[in-house]
């Protein structure tokens, strides 16, 4: 599989993993890891800051794909096929058609930032 094919598959697997969270057949371990993976994918904070030359992109090139691959292995194949099929239609013109899926993550990060600011200035 070439690099373009892997990137395309990864683009489908991220929303497919998110969709698998709501499936009853998805085991709890897969749901926990999927939640961590989605939170990490949407998080504005990286384990390795992007301003460090070369190393800053390792999380996007290595950590995130590994988390997705591990999560995918924990999801039952029938559920994953269904979620991948549904995920293919979620992206239109390189933007998510249903952007509100990211809203809970954005709200959590806004709460964290608020609590940090409150702790520092109050």
Would you kindly provide a written description of the structure presented here, covering whatever features stand out?
The chain has 122 residues and is mainly α. Helices cover 66% and strands 3% of the residues. The protein is built from five helices and two strands, in the order ααααββα. It has a two-stranded antiparallel sheet with strand order 1-2. Strand 1 (91-92) and strand 2 (95-96) form a beta hairpin. Helix 1 (3-20) crosses helix 2, helix 1 crosses helix 3 and helix 1 (3-20) packs across helix 4 (77-88). It is globular. The model has no long low-confidence stretch (mean pLDDT 76).
Features:
122 residues; mainly alpha
Q: How would you summarize what this structure contains?
A:
The protein is mainly α and 122 residues long. 66% of the residues lie in helices and 3% in strands.
